[in-house]
Design a protein that fits this description.
Strand order of the largest sheet: 9-10-5-11-4-1-3-2-16-17-18-15-12-14-13
Oligomer: single chain
Largest sheet: 15 strands, mixed
Radius of gyration: 21 Å
Structural class: alpha/beta
Helix content: 25-40%
Number of strands: 18
Strand content: 15-25%
Shape: elongated
Length: 484
């Protein structure tokens, strides 16, 4: 297919990073923006990333043209206004392949997001929308329109509940009256009143002609094509048929669909430019502070933190009772504050005073002193404002201290980077599935990862990648960091 610009939208930061990592290649660099429109600015020089690391100067791209992959974190998973932010972003999509990343467990305001994709025209013409939320690598499939986790219907699992976004909960969005706050029985139920048509597995596997015909018929009827998929091959077939019908189609799905789009767009460049390791000697500096922030209540994440502590990372545990009693001075769910005091999405930014933060920040600062490594976790039922509190604690603890960061959970990652004033990231590759290593413009390493991803040694693997002289690689396994 040759080089083509890609514009992806995500509802949280870990998803944005995951999407960028699977769309990029040695000749297709990526950039993640956290600051809202405009979405066409060229990237600045990134400290620590030479031209031979797969960036535009190595691939014949001009910085003036912008990167071939641009991913915008709209930060809508836990706040209102998804439809408006998606519409605003789509105004910048002309001439680009578009992918809208949603959660494979259908959390967030999926109905409002998809409705905006379907009803935001390109000029005066509607644009087809194809949705495939399967994530085979995590055992998440869709069969007969039913989302499954390792073969069990999502509604019957114990995973975190998908929640209707504020727009739908208030009855103002297209999904009002749909699946409510519980787990949906089907993808169509999660879409509520958004017109859709299921494309079954038999049709997906019936051959290119049959699938293209079904997709075209659905688009002609003004409906979203909701596709079944169990395997990466199914997703590859869906992407191939979609692009063959209309390259301007808006693809909506999880990381599996993003990876399929990446494979399709990069298929013509891999032979000439095989993926390699841009930072073969390790992903971060060999010295300097390393801070791991575990912003999720997932039991697996607690186990991962304990393993890292067992390898001499300093534990810093915050008690939930203290956090509840703290005068936060923070608006829950606020985004990055702009120069006018508003967030990227237009919401008012919370106050920035740090009353009550000092003792927590002091403990963390002492743990990081002298280039230490620390793991910040929370014990007990945390308040809703936890991600914002963690961001403020990290900001005060670091001050001007240079430190690499490992951030678990998309909202925690966003709030921490907002607090530190980080407005863009440049992905380098993945340490493991979902654990994406990026650079900030000043050269700091940041690894983001969804809270539920990774095995028991996930955090240790990430730490070993960033500090290979300090932490052992589990089982002697090599770190596979490369644009995929």
């Amino acid at each position: 297919m040759g080089p083509a610009p890609v514009f992806a939208l995500a509802d949280d930061l870990s998803g944005a990073a995951e999407t960028a990592a699977v769309l990029m290649s040695p000749t297709r660099p990526a950039r993640i923006v956290l600051s809202g429109p405009p979405y066409d600015a060229a990237p600045p020089y990134v400290a620590g990333l030479p031209c031979d690391a797969g960036w535009p100067c190595d691939a014949g791209w001009s910085y003036d043209a912008g990167p071939p992959v641009l991913v915008a974190d709209l930060d809508t998973r836990h706040r209102s206004g998804a439809a408006g932010l998606v519409r605003e972003a789509l105004a910048w999509a002309t001439g680009r392949h578009v992918l809208v990343k949603i959660d494979s467990l259908l959390r967030g305001d999926v109905a409002a997001t998809v409705h905006a994709c379907l009803t935001t025209f390109s000029g005066s013409a509607p644009v087809p929308v194809v949705l495939a939320s399967a994530l085979p690598q995590a055992g998440r499939a869709v069969v007969n329109g039913v989302p499954l986790i390792h073969g069990i219907p999502l509604r019957e699992t114990r995973t975190s509940d998908p929640v209707a976004g504020p727009d739908c909960a208030q009855g103002s969005g297209p999904g009002a009256g749909g699946s409510g706050a519980g787990r949906p029985d089907t993808v169509a139920a999660a879409l509520g009143a958004v017109p859709s048509a299921d494309i079954g597995l038999a049709t997906v596997r019936a051959g290119p002609a049959a699938l293209r015909e079904a997709l075209a018929e659905t688009a002609a009827g003004g409906r979203v094509a909701v596709c079944d998929a169990e395997t990466d091959a199914d997703l590859d077939t869906i992407v191939a048929a979609t692009l063959a019908n209309d390259p301007a189609t808006r693809l909506v799905g999880a990381g599996g669909l993003a990876a399929a789009l990446g494979r399709a767009l990069n298929s013509g460049t891999r032979a000439a430019s095989p993926a390699g390791s841009p930072l073969a000697s390790g992903g971060g500096s060999s010295t300097g502070a390393l801070l791991v922030v575990v912003g999720t209540a997932e039991p697996a994440a607690a186990e991962q933190a304990r393993l890292l502590v067992a390898h001499d990372a300093a534990p810093v545990v915050l008690d939930a009772a203290d956090l509840h009693a703290m005068d936060t001075g923070t608006a829950v769910g606020g985004g990055a504050a702009g120069p006018t005091g508003t967030t990227a999405g237009g919401n008012a930014a919370g106050p920035t005073d740090a009353r009550g933060i000092g003792p927590f920040a002091g403990r963390l600062r002492r743990a990081l002193g002298g280039g230490g490594a620390a793991v910040l976790t929370v014990r007990g039922a945390a308040p809703p404002a936890l991600p914002a509190l963690l961001g403020r604690i990290v900001r005060e603890a670091l001050g001007g201290m240079p430190a690499d960061l490992v951030l678990t959970g998309g909202e925690t990652a966003r709030r921490v980077l907002d607090a530190l004033g980080v407005r863009e990231l440049f992905p380098v590759g993945q340490v493991h599935h979902g654990a994406v290593h990026s650079r900030t413009p000043d050269g700091r390493s940041v690894v983001t990862r969804p809270g539920s991803f990774g095995g028991p040694d996930s955090l240790l693997r990430i730490a070993a990648h960033l500090r290979p002289r300090r932490f052992p690689r589990p089982g002697g396994a090599a770190i596979d960091e490369r644009p995929t």
